[in-house]
């Protein structure tokens, strides 16, 4: 199935408070063990002591390959903490770190990434639990983590640990990808990476005479990474890689293994190289035991198989070769290992007995595990017997180095912080994890001496090293001076027990092995084969051979479900459906493309680690095309429809009509709405617009003009940039409306940049003030233009942080990264150099050290890629929900119902619309077909755009700090007062965008409410007027509802009444203009059309006195008013069509005059509202008071009809009159 991310024809790390080393504890769960319990200094350990359970859930059987490394850690910690005893002939009067014991809390994560991350969170609960659940322990510190047991899980754990600057040291993760110090800044490893290992494998192949080979790899970080490392080296060595077979990293089914073996045998090769985890490796050998003709294959493994493996009862493993990181034999650890009491092992190792019973397929009398019931009793082996069969595991020495590395770093920190005083001092405990890592752990460099208490590692006589072991790291956190050992599983010298025997080492680029001890066996694995079987090309020749991947017209990563992306990497070519030059402009499509694949990788790894049920059994893939900015080519490449289409860059409002299109960022209308709100807040009611040519910008201008009118802002002029036009001509056009200084630039960045340069050249900076969209995203385009950019205002979508994507790009190297066929082209253009010295083309120099020079040294990583990243996240989340819909809550893979469903595209679209994405505690979701990312406002000054406010589309929250804004010349916005020098006829269109109420009916009553206070312009309203305004609309609708639903005390015989309600905003000119527009058929308009049924209009219901008097004067319209009380309307001979349901103010004035006389008042103060009706009522009242002989001592008028300051005004009037002695 294809899902579309694409489209544009036209991409989490929370900031954290520094954490100190003090350990925090919460309630814990899961399988764990504590080594050296009670130690004041602890390390967190993450080890896969068990395999994953069935279907990836829970824990399965014990992992036999982990036990020696775990015991090595126990042994090393015990040795470090020894004191007051003799060791190696010397008396120890203190522990290795004076007064500070070192321990470890180890979690068994059962080979599941999600469990490993959860365990890391339990070790550092302050980063995942509520504060009340945790208790700070000032008497102990947590130094960092050791683990995990594979490269894939280590990579996933790093996603957690790197967020909080937690040191992570691995003794097993060898993937070359982890050597990227920028992407994994807090990661170190004591085992060498896979890169140099490939040279050792090539040397072994040369020794064997292997020319024609197959590679089998697991689809995970280690497997794919190792294969990608080996592939170019095979080409360079002249070897033919005829087939690469990928297999699931967790699929140990017999069917999967049969498929691998069948494909390998079909090539007629002899030599097979395997890269992957131990579970797959061991299962593959187990299935091959009985697979027909599997004996024709000979195998080279790396560290996939524990060297301690004995393969009891199996023949097929005989002759396999393991090439892996070098490891010195530690005699002291061997002594410890062979003396473990199998019936009563240390409580620090709760897994030992299960391991022993699994390894020997027996049952220990002291074991309580029912899984081993029925097995024979384990034989009692003597120490000598155990020593004879002992083979030190390849990870023992790296595990010891990991422990001693922490110990050495802590001892150095103790020396600096504690002033020679034994024990854990407060200065040491309060040190941050970052300081401990940067200043101590990262900088360790030591050679084992007798003081490190391991004489085997301090020895200078051990071949082939002839030097003591050293522990130091390079800039990427890799241990330096790696060596590699070659082992062979055989019975040398014949008749001996089968086990892994060391043949030699690969040291300093040279292979030294004893080939006479390298034994391989026949197909039945019974007899030794001499000479050693080579792997020559078949009779048909060495083909096919998979060389280094060459450029192709698409980028592809396989998956069960593929996300299809369409990107613009090149300009359009001269010929039809052809491509031109590579686009390395402000928003290169290649970054969007890489962002899509970055997100896909995150889904397949990190997201699954967090939730093992997410897309269970389904891998995401990606297929990306370059449309070369050619819509025809794009439509040619993408032909499927009725699938969700996620727009990462195209924002035109025209796309709203496409059912399956979803905006991954706000559309232009919403962005322009924010821009208009800023203009309105600044008090600018008149603007000019300059736009780029083309349909996209025409639509953008139309949208802006409409939205601006709705907010009472008039566009007095619109000007056009021509493709190669004279910018000076545009400036002269702007001067034609020089009193309107705000200018909105709806244009591409190249036009805007050229225009501003012309403004600078003509010395007309400050004549106008410019506003634009997406300026922050394209900030680099405006930097360096000089003072002309000062004062620019922009709206932009900052979006989530893309640090993870930046780190991803930093890890890509042109000589190693083969997935993207355009990456090398991008690299060369960005670096302005050639990667090929024999083909310089237009480049003047060869790229210098591209292996160590990431593309990010010259390329600004766009924050704008976040829509592509979140587009993948939204698609994957919706896909998961869709699979639940069709396949049920326990789905594992793609079910038939999903595959066969004709409406799955529609269902998935519905799931997308309900998707919620969380980032830094903020939820993002779809609203009206678009993700509601917030908009931010910026003001340019000091060489950059500075934040001044934001607008949230989801709830219309709008903030703008106008006090922070400085326009060109350091002007405040209030200093700019755009206006029309005469009547602005250009603004009459604005009335077409006023809100109104329309309720359909057989007969329709037009009404002129006053819902708002007046605005500064006829087409602009002020604040909401609740009393006598908004409440009147609701009262009208209430009455209409009762009449139409038969609840009034009269009936209309099935005639339905409707309403056409306008807002006069207490502005007589506005109300009259709206009325005139209605009868002229130009307002209101819906989609540009006048559709009001004028023949159904009844008499008007007006509210304001001025408007009522004006339209009543014509005696052409019937009027009934519930609010106009002016006594002028009392003259029925003059206003023959006027009626009202409220008493006239003339009658009220008469009643008040009569009442005042009865009360005996001699003097009166009057206060009236600032409208015509109130003033007319005052005039009538004065006449009546004069008739009664009462004096009006003073009259006052409020600023408005009523607001919170009215009481204050009244108080001031009375206070003044009391001083004047008027009664």
From TrEMBL:
Which taxonomic lineage does the organism of this UniProt entry have?
Eukaryota, Metazoa, Spiralia, Lophotrochozoa, Mollusca
Q: Which domain of life is it from?
A: Eukaryota
| SUPFAM superfamilies associated with the record | Periplasmic binding protein-like I (SSF53822)
Give the signal sequence positions. 1-15
Sorted alphabetically, the keyword list is: Glycoprotein, Membrane, Receptor, Signal, Transmembrane, Transmembrane helix
Protein name, UniProt field: Receptor ligand binding region domain-containing protein
Please state where this protein is localized. Answer: Membrane
Alphabetical GO CC annotations of the entry are: membrane
Topology relative to the lipid bilayer, per the entry, is: Multi-pass membrane protein
Record flagged with keyword Glycoprotein: yes
PANTHER family according to UniProt: METABOTROPIC GLUTAMATE RECEPTOR
Q: Which organism is it from?
A: Pinctada imbricata
Pfam families for this protein: ANF_receptor
InterPro entries in the record: ANF_lig-bd_rcpt, GPCR_3, mGluR, Peripla_BP_I
């Amino acid at each position: 199935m294809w899902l579309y991310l694409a489209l544009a024809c036209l991409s989490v790390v929370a900031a954290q408070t520094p954490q100190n080393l003090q350990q925090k504890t919460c309630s814990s769960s899961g399988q764990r063990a504590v080594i050296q319990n009670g130690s004041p200094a602890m390390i967190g350990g993450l080890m896969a002591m068990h395999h994953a359970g069935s279907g990836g859930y829970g824990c399965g059987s014990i992992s036999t390959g982990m036990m020696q490394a775990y015991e090595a850690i126990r042994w090393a910690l015990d040795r470090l903490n020894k004191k007051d005893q003799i060791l190696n002939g010397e008396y120890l009067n203190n522990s290795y770190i004076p007064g500070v014991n070192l321990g470890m809390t180890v979690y068994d994560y059962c080979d599941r990434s999600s469990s490993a991350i959860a365990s890391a969170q339990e070790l550092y609960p302050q980063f995942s639990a509520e504060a009340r659940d945790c208790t700070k322990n000032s008497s102990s510190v947590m130094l960092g983590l050791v683990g995990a047991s594979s490269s894939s899980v280590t990579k996933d754990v790093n996603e957690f640990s790197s967020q909080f600057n937690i040191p992570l040291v691995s003794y097993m993760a060898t993937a070359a990808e982890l050597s990227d110090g920028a992407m994994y800044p807090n990661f170190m490893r004591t085992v060498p990476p896979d890169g140099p290992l490939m040279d050792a494998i090539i040397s072994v192949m040369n020794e064997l005479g292997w020319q024609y080979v197959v590679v089998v790899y697991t689809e995970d970080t280690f497997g794919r990474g190792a294969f990608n490392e080996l592939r170019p080296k095979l080409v360079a060595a002249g070897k033919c890689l005829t087939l690469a077979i990928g297999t699931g990293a967790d699929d140990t089914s017999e069917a999967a293994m049969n498929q691998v073996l069948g494909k390998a045998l079909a090539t007629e090769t002899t030599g097979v190289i395997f890269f992957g985890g131990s579970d797959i490796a061991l299962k593959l050998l187990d299935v091959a035991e009985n697979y027909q003709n599997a004996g024709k294959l000979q195998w080279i493994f790396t560290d996939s198989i524990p060297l301690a493996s004995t393969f009891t009862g199996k023949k097929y493993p005989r002759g396999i070769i393991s090439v892996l990181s070098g490891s010195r034999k530690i005699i002291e650890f061997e002594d410890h290992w062979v003396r473990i009491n199998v019936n009563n092992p240390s409580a620090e190792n709760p897994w030992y007995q299960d391991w022993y019973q699994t390894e020997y397929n027996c049952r220990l009398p002291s074991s309580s595990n029912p899984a081993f019931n029925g097995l024979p009793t384990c034989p009692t082996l003597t120490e000598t017997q155990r020593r004879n069969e002992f083979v030190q595991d390849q990870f023992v020495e790296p595990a010891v180095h990991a422990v001693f590395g922490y110990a050495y770093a802590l001892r150095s920190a103790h020396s600096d912080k504690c002033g020679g005083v034994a024990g854990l001092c407060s200065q040491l405990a309060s040190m941050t994890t970052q300081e401990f890592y940067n200043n101590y752990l990262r900088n360790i460099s030591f050679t084992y001496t007798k003081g490190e208490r391991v004489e085997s590692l301090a020895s200078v006589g051990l071949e082939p090293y002839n030097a003591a072991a050293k522990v130091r790291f390079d800039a990427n956190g890799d241990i330096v001076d790696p060596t590699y050992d070659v082992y062979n599983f055989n019975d040398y010298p014949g008749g001996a027990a089968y086990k892994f025997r060391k043949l030699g080492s690969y040291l300093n680029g040279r292979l030294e092995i004893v080939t006479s001890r390298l034994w391989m066996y026949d197909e039945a694995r019974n007899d030794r084969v001499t000479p050693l079987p080579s792997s020559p090309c078949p009779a048909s020749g060495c083909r096919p051979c998979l060389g280094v991947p060459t450029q192709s017209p698409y980028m592809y990563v396989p998956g069960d479900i593929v996300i299809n992306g369409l990107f613009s990497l090149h300009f359009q070519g001269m010929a039809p459906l052809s491509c031109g030059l590579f686009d390395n402009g402000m928003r290169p499509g290649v970054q969007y493309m890489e962002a899509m694949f970055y997100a896909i990788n995150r889904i397949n790894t990190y997201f699954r680690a967090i939730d093992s049920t997410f897309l269970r059994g389904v891998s995401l893939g990606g297929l990306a095309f370059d449309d070369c900015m050619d819509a025809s080519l794009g439509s040619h490449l993408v032909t499927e429809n009725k699938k969700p289409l996620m727009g990462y860059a195209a924002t035109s409002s025209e796309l709203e009509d496409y059912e399956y299109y979803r905006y991954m960022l706000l559309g232009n209308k919403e962005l322009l709405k924010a821009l208009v709100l800023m203009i309105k807040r600044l008090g600018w009611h008149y603007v000019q617009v300059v736009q780029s040519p083309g349909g996209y910008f025409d639509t953008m201008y139309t949208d802006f003009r409409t939205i601006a009118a709705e907010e009472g802002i008039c566009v007095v002029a619109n000007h056009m940039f021509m493709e190669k036009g004279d910018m000076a001509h545009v400036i002269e056009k702007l001067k034609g409306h020089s009193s309107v200084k705000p200018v909105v630039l709806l244009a591409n960045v190249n036009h805007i940049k050229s225009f501003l340069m012309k403004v600078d050249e003509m010395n007309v900076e400050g004549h106008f003030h410019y506003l634009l969209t997406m300026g922050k995203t394209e900030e680099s385009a405006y930097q360096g233009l000089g003072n002309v950019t000062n004062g620019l205002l922009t709206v932009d979508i900052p979006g989530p942080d893309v640090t993870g994507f930046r780190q991803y790009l930093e890890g890509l190297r042109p000589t190693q990264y083969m997935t993207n066929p355009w990456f090398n082209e991008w690299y060369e253009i960005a670096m302005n150099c050639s990667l090929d010295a024999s083909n310089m083309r237009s480049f003047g120099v060869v790229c210098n050290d591209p292996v160590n020079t990431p593309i990010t040294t010259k390329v600004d990583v766009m924050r704008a890629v976040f829509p592509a990243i979140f587009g993948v996240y939204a698609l994957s989340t919706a896909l998961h929900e869709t699979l639940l819909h069709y396949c049920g809550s326990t789905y594992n893979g793609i079910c038939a119902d999903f595959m066969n469903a004709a409406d799955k595209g529609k269902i998935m679209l519905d799931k997308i619309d309900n998707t919620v994405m969380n980032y830094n505690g903020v939820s993002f979701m779809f609203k009206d077909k678009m993700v509601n990312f917030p908009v931010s406002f910026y003001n340019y000054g000091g060489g950059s755009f500075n934040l001044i406010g934001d607008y949230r589309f989801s709830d219309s929250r709008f903030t703008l700090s106008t006090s922070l804004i400085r326009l060109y010349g350091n002007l405040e916005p209030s200093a700019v007062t755009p206006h029309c020098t005469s009547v602005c006829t250009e603004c009459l269109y604005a009335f077409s965008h006023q809100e109104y109420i329309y309720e359909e009916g057989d007969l329709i009553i037009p009404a002129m409410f006053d819902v708002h206070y007046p605005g500064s312009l006829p087409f602009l309203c002020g604040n909401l007027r609740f009393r006598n305004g908004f409440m009147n609309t609701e009262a009208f609708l209430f009455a209409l509802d009762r009449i139409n639903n038969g609840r009034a005390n009269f009936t209309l015989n099935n005639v339905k009444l409707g309403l056409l309600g306008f807002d006069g905003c207490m502005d007589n000119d506005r109300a009259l203009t709206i009325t005139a527009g209605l009868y002229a058929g130009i307002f209101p308009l819906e989609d540009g059309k006048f559709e009001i049924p004028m023949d159904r209009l009844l008499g008007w219901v007006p509210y304001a006195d001025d408007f009522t008097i004006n339209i009543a004067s014509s005696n052409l319209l019937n009027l009934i008013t519930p609010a106009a009380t002016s006594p002028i309307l009392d003259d029925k001979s003059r206003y023959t069509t006027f009626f009202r349901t409220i008493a006239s103010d003339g009658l009220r004035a008469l009643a008040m005059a009569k009442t005042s006389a009865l009360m005996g008042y001699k003097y009166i103060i009057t206060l009236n509202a600032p409208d015509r009706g109130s003033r007319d009522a005052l005039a009538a009242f004065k006449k009546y008071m004069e008739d009664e002989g009462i004096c009006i001592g003073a009259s006052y008028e409020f600023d408005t009809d009523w607001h919170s300051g009215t009481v204050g005004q009244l108080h001031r009037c009375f206070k003044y009159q009391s001083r004047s002695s008027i009664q």
